[in-house]
Amino acid sequence: MDVEKIRADFPIFKRKVNGKPLVYLDSTATSQKPLQVINAVKECYENYYSNVHRAVHTLSNEASEKYEGAHEKIANLINARGMEEIVFTKNTTESMNLILYSWTYNNLKAGDEIITTIMEHHSNIVPWQSLKSRGVKLKFVDINEDYTLRMEDYEKLITPKTKMVTVTHVSNTLGVINPVKEIGKIAHDNNCLFVVDGAQSVPHMPVDVRDINADFLSFSGHKMLGPAGIGVLYGKKEILEEMPPFMYGGDMIKEVSKESTVYNDLPWKFEAGTPNIEGGIGLGAAVDYLQKIGMENIRAHEKELVEYAFEKIATIPDVTIYGPTNSKIKAGVFAFNIGDVHAHDTASLLDEEGIAVRSGHHCTMPLTREKLHLQSSARASFYLYTTRDEVDALAKGIEKIRKVFKLK
């Protein structure tokens, strides 16, 4: 990978923040956008923007072809059997809610159980918590001292009443890469639906839904160089066919009479109303960009950065990093604290140096507050455009903070 060549595709890296070159280390929250994606959206607006699936004129046909083509590109990226298994949503959160309303509401009853983990993003906890009012019980797999999942918990927690197992592929706080294929086998051996949160894996590494044998996998376009407001729910065709629509209205129908409605084919049955046309087309362009570079190359680049970051940052006195130290199971996500410095102070002082990191609980309060007992933490995260020089800048910023707070 020629990282400098890649960075030239991203206009935002030309700007400065507080008089300093931008060091963007917040890609876990959202990624920056290359010109190829920006231009694809611009071209849509300028040359062929029209509603999809609603007309026979040239603009609508061109927009529909591009929009449908984006579904096909996503299917190819994650090795789905076809575009009918790719539903466009707003984001990972909406994808999880689609599962909630269209699958769990029709398949779970009082007394049934769902197993998730303590390291999940809120979007893989809160929807299932809402089922408590229906008598569904939510159980949590814990983590070991090395921040990996306590795999033996699955055997302890699964019962004949367990109907769904859900897990994040990559923790957005710990950066740990979970053994989803192994967890999926446990789920299916116990006749459970298997749901994967791929928001932090699909943008950063090869993901094969058939190899994982996921029943559902969700992710967001804005985290993988695409526009905001476009997300994906992958679902096995046979499961999606049995599910009722998530929302009702235009484009998710074939026929409507005063008495009844015949729903549309997959995936359109789950894409009611005018969709995010330009977002889908932009996501298709993002997939083209990522596949041209190669997901294996992106993962290898981030693995090298992880190893380098441990050399540069983990050795600094007073720095505590939360997550595994083994780069083979560690994504480019570094949640950390500097002594007793509040994470918001850390983030603010780093921002003065032009360095963008996140601070807070990272939408993982059961992990950070209840399990790790943290008031908050700062989080630096890497992507295909991150350089070693930026890791060096982070290390220098941390050293400066130590001096400001007179840490020894």
Automatic annotation (TrEMBL):
- Cofactor requirements of the protein: pyridoxal 5'-phosphate
Q: Which GO terms describe its biological process?
A: cysteine metabolic process
Q: Which UniProt keywords apply?
A: Pyridoxal phosphate, Transferase
Aminotransferase class V domain sequence ranges: 23-394
Question: Pfam families per the record?
Answer: Aminotran_5
In alphabetical order, the GO MF annotations are: cysteine desulfurase activity; pyridoxal phosphate binding
Which region is the signal sequence? none
Report whether ATP-binding shows up as a keyword of the record.
no
Classify the source by domain of life. Answer: Archaea
Catalysed transformations (reactions): (sulfur carrier)-H + L-cysteine = (sulfur carrier)-SH + L-alanine
Asked whether the keyword Protease is assigned, the reply is no
Provide the E.C. number(s) assigned to this enzyme.
2.8.1.7
Q: Which NCBIfam families match?
A: sufS
Protein family per UniProt: Belongs to the class-V pyridoxal-phosphate-dependent aminotransferase family. Csd subfamily.
PANTHER family, per this entry?
CYSTEINE DESULFURASE, CYSTEINE DESULFURASE 1, CHLOROPLASTIC
Name under which the protein is recorded? cysteine desulfurase
Q: Origin organism of this chain?
A: Candidatus Naiadarchaeum limnaeum
Q: Organism classification, top ranks?
A: Archaea, Candidatus Undinarchaeota, Candidatus Undinarchaeia, Candidatus Naiadarchaeales, Candidatus Naiadarchaeaceae
